[in-house]
Amino acid sequence: MNVAVAKTGKARALSDLFASAEGRLPGSPDVIAVRREAFEAYERLGLPHRRIEEWKYTDLRALVGEVLPLAATPDAAALKRAADAVKAQAIDGARKLVLVDGVFAADLSDAASLGSEATITTLREMLGNAANPAAGDLLRTITTDAVISLNAAMATDGIVLSIAEGVELSAPVQIIHVATAASASAFTRSHVKVGSRARATIIETFVAAGQAGAYQVNDAVVLWVGNEADVAHIRLMDDAADAVNISSQFVTIGANTKLNVFSMTSGAAVSRLQGWITLAGEGSELSVNGVNLLKDAEHGDTTLVVDHAVPNCTSREIFRAVLDDRAHSVFQGRIIVRPDAQKTDGKMMTRALLLSDEAEADNKPELEIFADDVSCGHGATAGALDDSLLFYLKARGLPEKQAQALLIQAFVGEAIEQIADDGLREHVIGIAERWLERRQ
Amino acid sequence: MPAVQETVDRVKRIDVDQYRYGFETLIESDKAPKGLSEQTVKFISEKKNEPAWMLQWRLEAYRRWLTMTEPTWARVDYPKIDFQDLYYYSAPKPKKTISSLDEIDPEILKTYEKLGIPLREVAMLEGVEPKPGEDDPNRRKIAVDAVFDSVSVATTFKAELKKAGVIFMPISEAIREHPELVQKYLGSVVPTSDNYYATLNSAVFSDGSFVYVPPGVRCPMELSTYFRINERNTGQFERTLIIADKGSYVSYLEGCTAPQRDENQLHAAVVELVAHDDAEIKYSTVQNWYPGNSEGKGGIYNFVTKRGDCRGNNSKISWTQVETGSAITWKYPSCILRGDNSRGEFYSIAISNGYQQVDSGTKMIHLGKNTTSRIISKGIAAGKSQNTYRGLVTAHRKATGARNFTACDSLLIGDKCGAHTVPYIEAKNSSATFEHEATTSKISEDVLFYCIQRGLSQEEAVGLVVNGFVKDVLQQLPMEFAVEAQKLISISLEGSVG
């Protein structure tokens, strides 16, 4: 079969890549052993393809083909370009933590201003600490697949952020991933730990600096939220139009916690956000929302598993996809209710709006339920803009495109509204508006 | 609080041991040697006096089957089937022509009696011609093609159907008498290479029904067939082919019961429906095969491929199923909506109790313009069972104006069971409108409290709620089946339904 042949060819290319990158990958000998193991797991599997159920609609072998070599450590010129991009993307008042081509850029970051509110280290530092026997665990996750294994093998850096118990962050923390190199890969992995009763807003931004394009991003975030904490996590992905962004999130939530997650995709040729959220403590409220704005031949995939492992938790998911041209959106959502997780209340709603006859929306909302005293549901719709609504607006003098924009804004608004912070919500609405303007 | 303790206890108590239809008819049968080989395929073909092309077709399917592997994607778990340890053919010894009930094998008669089929109907089932004047014109007529194990024992109402031009006969006979129709349509909806079990069926199918309704004819009666898996260790491989020519209408009923057994039995049927321009086919199933005992031992493996092809414009195919039996169900009645303005419907009640595993659903494949489909699925899981809805709705790029509505609801009774929903929704053009909703819940305490307050017992209240829960689907069944289906639901959930 040609698949096997393709794998052999690419595996060889990638082995070379790992061998050549190995000298640059941080880590004590123990950590390097974990990396090697992860890399072998990746080599066995190769890039995910449509025969693997979880990747049925996102065939990376067809869409991406091969993994690009590791990006070079950014030089002064690259950092200069990154600084401009950071300036454009920085959210007012937020403390920036910047990763350029997969390497932490201290000069562009405001790590110091966090003061005593949080401790910040880099993944590079943690992995290189031979005195820490558990350093290798930073590269291990509860769930794994080929891209996660590849991330574990190749991660060059990341942010390790820890917010102490009871601390209320005075300003949001914004992790900015900047790509400056073309035709190269960046592998990052960050760990965020929010202590009990703490309050925090974490923003993640993915952007390209200047003309950077055709690059690949493979990011992983491990988020741990303590009991009674209140956390907002917002992810804004606006990578270059020919870039690839594959991100994995691993979230564990304690008891009586509030977690509000939002993600916006408005860039990258191929993107996938895959998340595993485990409700591990009772009485927690989880809200997960997202908007995918896709045009041209963009492919945007959101795959999410919400695992109710304990009783008495609530989860709400609202997803919207707007598809223009030949865009392809994928939403795979799964709600698992474990045998003991009685009184679970889980709802998931996903809707796709097709603006073009060549667009494609694939939805796979799953329920997997092992407890009886629960209330779970999901809804999914796909369709075009309502003609009668368009007519109504046009009859009142709005031009076609503007009428469409208004309706689209209302459509994605249902998900964006879930962001609690006024300033951040406005910021996200702004991104959607600019996307709509570009369309006109 | 989980489902009322009383309910849970009673469900546990009734188990599935009390399978009402678990009995064995002792009649001599004509068996093929155990195991599967080209010889077995030839034996079956020879037994049926089949023409050479049919044997060739079977052999090709068999050779392809050898190259295939068993699918494992469904959420079902069972020991590996030894295909060499099964009998692939068994037929009751041929009987002389029957002119009165007395001539029918009393054993078979008893079987029908236990199934609750009235003697008068048995007479019809067994092909006894009613005396003139005995016929009650007010009584709705059902033509029954009784499949007793693998061979159609008798076919009734043949004359009346013939007058209308409808061909309704065992498929083995159709192969001999209407080879042009069979050759044209057999395997045109479910090709021999379709899937592991469909291919196996193509190689060794023993019998089944064949229906052809000529253009413009509205079939004068409901067509019905009873399947019984009777012989120990006999894989039952039914093959049904229904063709509704232009502007015709036919309603087909299929009901199944099987005796109690220790070893698992395999049932891999294939049903193909073809609807031409303006034609409509309504296919209803009530399935209550032996689900295994309280330890999950025994029971039927039901791996069925059912597919309808709306080949013509304005055609319609409707599937209605009530699934209460079988240890394992793996079944996805589908519609290919090829013709413009064609319509597909799927109404399903799947009840699992004991250790039953159900992985069932449908596929609606929109290819033509302005095609519509509707899916209503109700899953009820009790005991230690697992109940999965798996469905696909897809609109092709050229299927402009495609519409689908899906509602799949699950009800859980007890905390040891699981209910799962795995829908795939693929929209490939902007004018397709898809709506999907799914809910999973238990019976609301408030609703139960309300009923009990008004003087109903707990069990009656549960019964009322469950009946309401499945009402949308029951309403789709032809009247004859609706009654049987209601009975089945209460047997399946006995203890939790009043």
Short description:
The complex is a heterodimer of chains A (440) and B (498). Chain A has 9 helices and 19 strands.
Structure description:
The complex is a heterodimer of chains A (440) and B (498). By secondary structure, chain A is α/β, with parallel strands linked by helices. Chain A has a domain at 9-281. Chain A contains 9 helices and 19 strands. Chain A has helices at 2-22, 29-45, 60-63, 76-89, 123-128, 146-154, 387-395, 400-416, 422-439, and strands at 95-100, 103-104, 118-122, 159-163, 173-179, 185-194, 199-208, 216-225, 230-238, 244-253, 258-265, 270-279, 285-294, 299-308, 314-323, 328-337, 345-354, 360-369, 375-383. In chain A, strands 2-1-5-7-9-11-13-15-17-19 form a 10-stranded mixed β-sheet. Chain A has a 9-stranded mixed β-sheet with strand order 3-4-6-8-10-12-14-16-18. In chain A, helix 7 crosses helix 8 (400-416) and helix 8 (400-416) packs antiparallel against helix 9 (422-439). The longest helix of chain A has 21 residues, at 2-22. Chain B is of the alpha/beta class and 498 residues long. Chain B has 12 helices and 24 strands. Chain B has a 10-stranded mixed β-sheet with strand order 4-3-7-9-12-14-17-20-22-24. Chain B has a 6-stranded parallel β-barrel with strand order 13-15-18-21-19-16. The interface between A and B is large, with 35 and 38 residues.
What descriptive keywords fit this protein?
heterodimer, A: 440 residues, alpha/beta, 10-stranded mixed β-sheet, 9-stranded mixed β-sheet, 9 helices, 19 strands, globular, disordered N terminus, B: 498 residues, 6-stranded parallel beta barrel, 12 helices
